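[Q] Does anyone have a clean structure-token version of this?
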Amino acid sequence: MERKIKAILFDLNGVFIKSPKLSERLAEKYGISADNIWPVLKEILKKTRLPETRTADVWNPLLEMLHTSQDDLFEFWFTAESLNEDLLSFSQSLKNEGYQIFVLSNNFPERTAYYRSHFPQIFESVSGSYFSWETGLIKPDPKAYEHLLNENKLRGDECIYFDDSEENIQSAATLGIHGYIYTSLEEAKMVISSFQPSLT
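[A] Here you go.
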């Protein structure tokens, strides 16, 4: 049976955004082991990716460990990230060909605001963006993918999805989504070209 692909879904960090590993950068800057930093950061991120978390003090355990401020932490963090310009250009060409392009990201308000301000071209080149802190749905929960599919009247088998997490790929696959680990633009092009004759 012919596979008709209508949409391409992309994770944001590690795909559209090049993001150096924060715990290692913080370890180098503050002289604290990344093994000590990561568990604290991981617990905070679990909370900030949800819409009900709006208080600044959620970051306090990490700020106290590093003896820094939230503003300084975010500046150090966000300014080291960069846009994958080649992927952005490719995604725009896909959109011009007729594909719907979506970003699906676990993220928190301040980081999202930074991206929307500093990388507006991402949001101008996609059909829609879905952030966990806005939807309340966190990958790999299948509901995160279902929400996007339902809102855009798509079936899972009509979508190709790129992420840097195997767990997220496997979850998407339970809905019939064609999931692939993003390793390079060249490989992404090869994957999409294998479906290209079925573009509608």
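[Q] Thanks! Anything notable?
[A] The mean pLDDT is 93.
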